[in-house]
Amino acid sequence: WECCRSAVRRLHEPFSLFPETLGLFLERAKLLLRRMTRSDEDREIGWDAWSAWSDCSRTCGGGASYSLRRCLNGGSCEGKNIRYRTCSNTDCPAESGDFRAQQCSAHNDIKYQGVTYEWVPAPYDPTAPCTLRCQAKGRSLTVELAPKVLDGTRCRADAFDMCISGVCQEVGCDRQLASGAREDNCGVCGGDGSTCRLVRGQALPHLTPEQSLKTVLEVPMGSRFLRLNAKGPDMIVIEAVSLQGRKEETGLQSTGSYVIGNTSLDFQRGNDRQTLRTHGPLGADYIIKIKYGGSKDTVVQFLFYKPIRYQWRETDFFPCSVTCGGGYQLNSAECTDIRSNQTLPEHHCNSYPENTKPTPKLKECNMDPCPESDGFKAVMPHDRFQPLPRWEQGPWTQCSVSCGENGGWQDRSVLCVEEDAHGQFSQVDEWKCTHSPRPVARQICNTFACPQWVAMEWSQCTVTCGRGLRYRVVLCIDHRGQHVGGCSPSLKPHVKEDCLVPVACHKPRESLPVEAKLPWSKQAHELEEHYTATENPTFIPGPWSPCSTTCGPGRQTREVKCQVLLTFTKTEVDLPEEECGGDRPQLERPCNHGPCTRATAVRDHGAPLFHADDLHSWDFRGFTACSATCAAGEQTAVVRCVNRKQDEEVDDALCDPSSRPSVMIRICNPEPCPPRWEVTAWTGCSASCGVGIQTRSVFCMRLLSVDQQDIQTISEDACTDFRPAILQPCNQVDCPPAWETEAWQQCSQTCGDGVQVRKVYCKQLLSTGAYSRGPADLAPCPEGIKQCPALISTHNIYIQTRKERRLHLTVGGHAYLLPNTSVVIKCPVRRFPKAYIRWLKDGSALPSSQRLGVTKSGSLKIQFLEPEDTGVYKCVAGPASDIFTLQLIGGDGSSAGRPPAPGPNWEEMLPSCYSHDSVLKTIRPGARVSLVPAGGQEADRGEIQQEQASELISSLLTHMSPAQLWTRTTRRGGQAKGKQRPSRPHCAGGQQSVPSTFQKNIDISIGHSALLTNATRSLTIRCPAEGSPPPKISWSKDGALLQHSDRKDGLLDAGAVSLPSGSLWIRNVSVHNQGTYSCAATNAIGKSTASTVLKVHGGFTHKFGWRFGGWTTCSTSCGSRGTWLRRIRCVSLDGKDVHPDMCQRVPKPATSPVPCNRQACPPRWSVSEWSKCSASCGAGQKQRRVTCQQLDAGGAARTLPAAACEGTSRPADTEPCSANNCPVWVTSPWGKCSGRCLGPTTTLQKRSVVCQHNSSPIPSITPSLSFRPVSVRNCSSDLCDVQWRPGAWRACTVVCGSGFQSRRVDCVHSKTGRTLADQHCAWLQRPSTWQHCNTATCECEDTTQYCSVVRRLRLCHVDTYKQRCCSSCLRGVDST
């Protein structure tokens, strides 16, 4: 034993003492394993069992444990004697520190070369990851303190790989050796990357010295693989914010490693580039900022993986459904905020498409038998007798509010219910339903804004002085912008209010003495009555202008307008003068401000105004008032005839008219006018009745020049006056009553014939904007009820007996056709546009194929049938639908009677009014068998023997899957599933009779009478019963109760069996089985009975029989599309017609449609569908194709020349159409030709251009800019015929040595010579107003003998010496 122990010790020594040999040993071991051919069992021969696992090398953070075994055959065993596993994989507390750092710090007390150091782990060395290399703290000294680290030490800090016996072993993220498990980009071990999102982008901060810091990126806590590149001179600053709100800010200035927010990151800084990297996850929120570092912009590029904050987490399993006997228990998933670890509502997780809620897990529980039971009871969760609990929701309550921006709430009850084995529902705990999403119990409703009062602009005050009233229109507007009712009357803003015009309505107290009073006539004018507009057109005079002279006699003028007062809006509107009756007030009157005190002669031109020998002469007596208070008005000099001796004004006739001075005008008040509002004309009314709206544009303008009418548009903030209204009501009259209809409601039936209803009521829009109900007898009234779309299907079974090029069939049946046959399946529909008919195949859209297509009439066209064309085709016309089953006969070598099994979507493929039965019921009343194509001979016209049809149908349908057979049923509106109320039993049987059948196995429902033959092998009579509690079924024959008995003389012999489903099965039908069979359904509430009469016929003959009669009228007159049928009559033995009921015991022969009238049809015009309107708005045209066609005898349509259809009128191929009104550009009249001058006779004039739609401005709909009318154009005006007129040069400032001289340059009109402001000539180059003069050098001489000293001492810059030593100083300058 000691020898074996030493051998084991020798085998173990290389692992513990010489780690460098481990790799070589492993390679040799792998080579030996590849060469071995023996089984694993053979390789284990010679080894003892493995020992127990050793203690873990660490207590936390991931350690290693080993197990040993010994070789029993003297050391020649194959394989290893040691194995390892990881252990203690839980994370260590944060205060414990790094494991490798602990091993380095253990050497702090040991002197190295005579000195003690504080040791920390050295940077990672990939060549020796498992040696203990430590670095002296604060120094560059790095020493290998041990050849290997302790087992369980991480090879590097950012990986799970660990050192075991001095060798770095690969460890997966699941902490298992060599598992290969890897973390995804989100940090999830073995994850698929669905718990985070990749965020990448670029930012350009545009920093300035004024804005030196800007945030460019926010990275949330938990993000991974952050990489940021910055190219530019600016500096990166990181602000870390912890969950507790603690902040720290760090500026990255130099290359190195940083720890910011408990996260290590590497930063590198180059000449013009900075790089930031961190593996993560971030321990805090990072707010990355850029700090100004230079004028050049910095480009920031970033990439990181951002965690999805709200994620699903599975819960623990809920309690078991039972305490014993076998039950089940479920778990669920909760939406969790990974930042706060709190559970939140599910909509937080549902907002991320990456989040997939885990499917609840199901497991068995409490499997021990219950005490005092007869054995084990297994409750399987998917057992059809005890289905899983499910959610049941009630109807929504009424919304809590009728309107509002935030909306209201409506609730419904959501319960978890469970169905027991008897079909009873009961409420259970909600955790049992967590395997499926819980329906929402509350939802937001009526989120639109409530109607509210909207007030228009105030009108002008009703008076021009003192106190008055002003009015406005107040409308109730809903969220769609329509005038409706429903606003609270108590909240309606007032429509009128007092207003005050700050103008006194009384004449101020007279302050002048009686002697200084104005003439009585002027006082009379000032006391004139003030005119205001009334409801009748009236002349309204404006204020008088100032007197034309400042002294002496003058004239005053005023403006007179014809105006009318609009009563509702209290606004005054200008009218043409002819609308006002009566005399118009005077426009002009004389005025006199008293005698002039002295003459003010203007003698600018230097000419005398009178001769000395004249007694009377012309003289200037001041200027008239300025024509404008701003923007460069004009004043004209007043010339009067004056008596020179007395210096008094006399009559102008006393002066010589030829010597009268010319008119002199000067500019006054040149400053621009203050800003004021300018408005355009009102647009047309938006509505013809009710309450319409008129709009206009309002601009803030500034008048620069009255003469040139130069107007500048400025910001609206510059206009301080009350802004004029931009809209006003119009056409406030009641609209005529009109019918209003709501949308059609859903069809009353989910299948079959139903109706659709809509609400129709008469409404009238009043002038107040509210609606009122109009008279109900207004005609015509739109219809309020209509029938739903319906399919006209034919339930036939089509069997192709010979090759045919093309067949025309109808939806609703089964077809068994030969390969390479083309077929057209028609889908007749009522009250539904055929262009919207859809077709499905096997529950999916039709495959893309050149052989499949849908015609304009909605028919399905399949050319040259192939095996892949078989299946179930469904025609869908709105709520109505029907199917058509298509099979090939011998197409792929399989029996046509064995159609493929239905897919999982078979229930969806069933037509809206059909359901499938569990037994064969294809041949039933209303379904007939047709052999296609019908032959052309008399013997082929549907005269098929019943025996032949029976064999053919039986061979095709015997093995058909029950799910592929369907019968018409009526679906009633679904009732809310829940606990059913007790109800009387009801036998769901029919009362119609069926003809005798020729099948061997018959299945009928109770209530159907059956005629059988002695060839029938078995008969099943079904008795479907409904009721609560479920009823019990009992059978009786001819009034005697049938009871099961093993005795041959029992009432129910072995030939009749009562099935568990309640059906009665009769085998080997014979004559003694005929009679009346009754089914009784009984429960505690009551009893229901239904009966079926069976008649069995043997080999006896009938007294009555069926006989073919004449043919019906052909359905069409030409074109090979018509069919006719043979009439079938019931006759007696002597051939006389009798009532058809006499033949009900005899099988009625089937008759098939036969083509007729195969001759070609006469030519006729054929039209296509109308095209779309050629114009998207306004008037346009739509077209269609009109061709002359003829339907030939083969049913094909041929296109003929138009001359062939000349006998009939040709339909129109074009038709006018109109769409929505087009937006149009609306222009105002051109303004005055008074803009800035562009040339001698060219200036500008402007107009407004507005885009309007339906007479209302809509800036969102803009016509093409290429067609926008111009708003500015050039125009001709003599106001621009101006020129610069220079004056004479003034004297030069010096006589020598280069001086200056100036002159006056005026802007004058070329024709009148008037002096204008300089801005009128701004478009012309202005002549210079100054120039150099007398540039010749002045001659000078020295006037003192000391000039040589002055020059030598360099004193020429002093003015005194410069003048006294002129010549010397000039020579000194030249010499230099």
Write a brief structural summary.
Residues 969-995 are annotated as: Disordered. The chain is mostly beta strands.
Describe the protein in words:
- This protein has 1376 residues and is mostly beta strands.
- It is built from 11 helices and 96 strands.
- Strand 72 and strand 73 (1040-1041) form a beta hairpin.
- The protein starts with a helix and ends with a helix.
The strand count comes to 96
Task: Figure out the total of helices.
Answer: 11
If you compute it from the alpha carbons, what radius of gyration comes out, rounded to the nearest whole angstrom? Answer: 55 Å
Coarse shape: flat
Helix and strand content put the structural class at mainly beta
Percent range for β-strand residues:
25-35%
How can the largest sheet be summarized? 7 strands, mixed
End-to-end distance: 121 Å
Domain Ig-like: 789-885, 995-1095
Protein name: ADAMTS-like 3
Pfam family, one: ADAMTS_CR_3
Organism: Astatotilapia calliptera (Eastern happy)
Please describe the topology of this protein:
Elements: H1 2-17, H2 22-35, H3 40-43, E1 63-68, E2 82-87, H4 99-105, E3 119-121, E4 132-136, E5 142-146, E6 153-154, E7 162-164, E8 167-169, E9 196-203, E10 213-219, E11 224-231, E12 235-241, E13 247-252, E14 256-260, E15 263-269, E16 273-278, E17 285-291, E18 299-307, E19 310-314, E20 327-330, E21 333-337, E22 342-344, H5 347-350, E23 362-365, E24 390-393, E25 408-411, E26 414-419, E27 425-427, E28 442-445, E29 452-455, E30 466-471, E31 474-477, E32 496-501, H6 520-526, E33 538-541, E34 553-557, E35 560-566, E36 571-575, E37 588-592, E38 616-623, E39 633-643, E40 648-649, E41 665-668, E42 676-679, E43 692-695, E44 698-705, E45 710-713, E46 727-730, E47 738-741, E48 755-757, E49 760-765, E50 771-773, E51 785-787, E52 790-791, E53 796-800, E54 806-810, E55 814-817, E56 822-826, E57 829-830, E58 838-841, E59 844-845, E60 852-854, E61 860-862, E62 871-877, E63 880-888, H7 906-909, E64 914-916, E65 928-932, H8 946-957, E66 966-968, E67 983-987, E68 1001-1005, E69 1010-1013, E70 1018-1022, E71 1025-1028, E72 1032-1037, ...
Parallel strand pairs: 53-55, 53-65, 54-56, 55-63, 68-70, 69-77
Antiparallel strand pairs: 1-2, 3-4, 4-5, 6-7, 7-8, 9-18, 10-17, 11-16, 11-18, 12-13, 12-17, 14-15, 15-16, 19-21, 20-23, 21-22, 24-26, 25-28, 26-27, 29-31, 30-32, 33-35, 34-37, 35-36, 38-39, 39-40, 39-41, 42-44, 43-46, 44-45, 47-49, 48-51, 49-50, 52-57, 56-61, 58-59, 58-62, 60-61, 62-63, 64-66, ...
